[in-house]
Design brief:
This is Cycloartenol synthase. This protein has 5 helices and 4 strands; from the N terminus they run ααββαββαα. The radius of gyration is 31 Å and the shape is extended.
Length: 189
């Protein structure tokens, strides 16, 4: 038995709320066990366990082969149009209606949905000319996605960074870069 006067206020209050009139300490064992389990699991997951997607250390032997692409250019036809979120859903439902003859609504959230569809009337560059996009992986394996960038910049309604001015400070360069990449940002993130 534990004397009530010797117990700290928190534990005494806890025992009284649990209905122990004589202050029996055994009533607190389940609570104490739960607290210790949570504390142990926290310490284990924070300091001892590896993350779920741990890729491991470096390879024992480096790869000897290098990527190689044929020295040719691929030309993409103008007319591929990027659609996102609600626009993407509307385009897909319209195409399904054309194919099946009856409307089939899509399920799920529209946010984050991105699709490409073909529209031969589209495909102009920034100057309004018919755009021909070529890509050579042998020269640069990063496509820079010229089709996507051109369409996003054409749709941008806000102020555009001045392409003719050259930034004088790092701060100006950062602001100009953020203004450009803001134009490429999708509405739904």
């Amino acid at each position: 038995m534990v004397q009530r006067e010797a117990m700290p206020g928190f534990w005494q209050t806890l025992l009284e709320k649990r209905g122990s009139s004589n202050g029996d300490a055994c009533v607190m064992l389940p609570l104490l066990a739960t607290i210790l389990c949570i504390l142990g699991a926290s310490i284990y997951s924070s300091y001892i366990a590896r993350p779920t997607s741990y890729p491991g250390g470096p390879r024992a032997q480096k790869q000897k082969r290098r990527a190689a692409w044929l020295p040719r250019s691929s030309i993409f036809s103008p007319g591929w149009v990027f659609a996102e979120a609600e626009t993407s859903v509307a385009v897909t439902e319209r195409e399904v209606l054309t194919l099946l003859g009856e409307p089939v609504p899509l399920t799920g959230e529209a946010a984050g949905r991105q699709t490409w569809h073909w529209d031969p009337k589209k495909g102009k560059d920034l100057a309004g000319r018919k755009a021909d996009y070529s890509f050579s992986a042998a020269r640069n394996p990063n496509s820079a996605d010229k089709v996507f960038r051109t369409q996003q910049v054409n749709q941008w309604k806000g102020p555009r960074p001045n392409s003719k001015s050259r930034p004088k400070t790092a701060r100006e360069a950062a602001h100009k870069a953020m203004a450009y990449y803001q134009m490429l940002q999708c509405e739904d993130g």
